[in-house]
Design goal:
472 residues; mainly alpha; 3-stranded antiparallel beta sheet; 3 strands
């Protein structure tokens, strides 16, 4: 049949109508589904080769793919083009991924881990975060003179927490299991989960000092809202919910009221339920999710019931792929060279280098003897290096925008200038962290293999499975 007779015409959403019937229906949403699902499918087909042989995980490749399909690549997927709702969508996407990851971290830790390792976690979390917060802010204050120190503290608060999603992707790999002791893997995972929720107080004091006219009022709100209400209430709420559901599920399992699939499904359902309750009342939903995960597996029963199931790993894997594709497409490359706002690529590169060196490593090298899980300075150096910034930094920076005034062009005051510059600075550091921390394992593996061949040439030549021992 002649094509002219089919009366083919284009409609507004790029669909094609043939004889009043839809043939092709092309839209940004549908193309996004193809890209997100297609990447996950293709990566899964070669995941063993890439993750276990090349030691490159979905964090790095997902981000790279997001950049390719983003507005500065093929422009298929552009979160910033969604108008006023783009920040809300970004905030909620990051929140869901973080909450599920934090709940999973709490469940995967050994029973009563937070109680048994409270001293070590306190050293790894509170003073380490405070040190990095102040130091990173000082570096920003020097590199970006238009920022006052309070604004620099606000941006530094976004970069203070260790990202549990990226950390889990690193500490769960084959290389980590072969070369990093279990104590180190557990303490790094627990620290990453705990300090994520504790980013709220660091952000809150900076925001209050920025927008409040009285320092006394700012400190009062910070203590009452930032600490007592958000942190303490969020932790207690999560622990209570986790404890209650632990008892309910154990009773239901003993009575034969719940089947295996429904029991495993609680892994996802409880994390989202806890997030919903905590965020609705304005408490710290991230800490609540982690506390719920710890409480529900406090006696080890929930972990025993789910440890041989792959459901949580599958959920984490799919969410991680989609989340980092989203982050790659979200990165505002056009804002990295903005002379009017005193932002330039060389300053951002210097900032990333300074953060990698000074944010965690000096402090942990100084205090590692107070952390029994860290046996030597090499493990302290390793622990200091692996403080990746990713989903949590994007989440906290987007949350900060909801508390700051809408900026004018040019910004009328320091608060508006902070609102303009916070995401370009944070996003570039996140990109740098994904590259540095995501590719550290392949580099370390190359060094380990090279050293093992140099020191044990005869053994490596006859035994291909030979690997180096732990870090120390």
């Amino acid at each position: 049949m002649d094509l002219d007779l089919l009366q083919v015409r284009a409609v507004s959403d790029c669909s094609f109508v043939i004889n009043n019937s839809f043939f092709f229906q092309v839209s940004p949403a549908r193309i996004s589904y193809i890209c997100l699902g297609g990447f996950t499918v293709l990566f899964s087909l070669v995941s063993l080769l890439i993750k276990e042989k090349l030691y490159v995980n979905e964090v790095v490749l997902g981000t790279a793919f997001g950049i390719i399909i983003g507005p500065f690549g093929t422009n298929i997927f552009a979160p910033h083009s969604w108008g006023p709702s783009s920040n809300t969508i970004t905030l909620e996407v990051m929140r869901i991924v973080l909450v599920i990851g934090l709940f999973a971290a709490g469940v995967e830790l050994p029973s009563a881990y937070m109680k048994k390792h409270a001293k070590s976690l306190f050293v790894m979390v509170v003073p380490t975060m405070a040190f990095g917060w102040v130091v990173v802010a000082a570096v920003m204050y020097v590199l970006f003179p238009k920022l006052d120190y309070i604004s620099a503290l606000c941006i530094a608060a976004c970069l203070t927490p260790t990202d549990p999603v990226t950390c889990a992707a690193i500490t769960h790999g084959k290389f980590a299991h072969q070369h990093v002791r279990e104590d180190i893997r557990h303490i790094l995972l627990a620290e990453a989960a705990a300090n994520d929720g504790l980013a709220y107080p660091f952000l809150a004091i900076s925001i209050y000092l920025t927008i409040e006219t009285s320092v006394q009022t700012a400190i009062g709100k910070w203590f009452l809202v930032g600490w007592l209400y958000q942190v303490i209430l969020g932790t207690v709420l999560g622990a209570v919910l986790g404890f209650l559901f632990s008892k309910l599920m154990k009773k239901s399992l003993d009575q034969g009221f719940i089947d295996r699939k429904s029991y495993i499904a609680q892994y996802l359902a409880l994390s989202i339920f806890t997030m919903g309750v905590a965020s609705t009342i304005g408490a710290d939903d991230l800490l609540a999710a982690f506390a719920a995960g710890c409480a529900i597996s406090w006696d080890g029963h929930f972990h025993e019931q789910t440890e041989h199931e792959d459901f949580s790993s599958v959920i984490d894997y799919v969410l991680n792929c989609c989340c980092f594709i989203y982050i790659g497409a979200w990165l505002p490359f056009n804002a990295y060279d903005s002379p009017g706002y005193d932002i330039s690529p060389w300053k951002l590169v210097l900032l990333v280098i300074a953060i990698m060196i000074f944010r965690r490593i000096p402090f942990l090298l100084a205090v590692y003897k107070f952390v029994p899980e860290i046996a030597c300075w090499r493990e302290a150096l390793f622990s200091g290096h692996f403080g990746p910034m990713g989903v949590s930094a994007v989440f906290v920076s987007t949350l900060a925008l909801t508390r700051l005034p809408t900026p004018e062009d040019p910004p009328a005051n320091q608060a508006q200038y902070l609102a303009t510059t916070i995401q370009p600075i944070v996003s570039f550091v996140v990109l740098g962290s994904i590259i540095v921390h995501g590719l550290s394992i392949p580099v370390f593996n190359g060094l380990v293999v090279s050293r093992s061949r140099t020191t044990s040439l005869s053994k490596t030549s006859t035994d291909d499975s030979y690997v180096m021992g732990p870090v120390c």
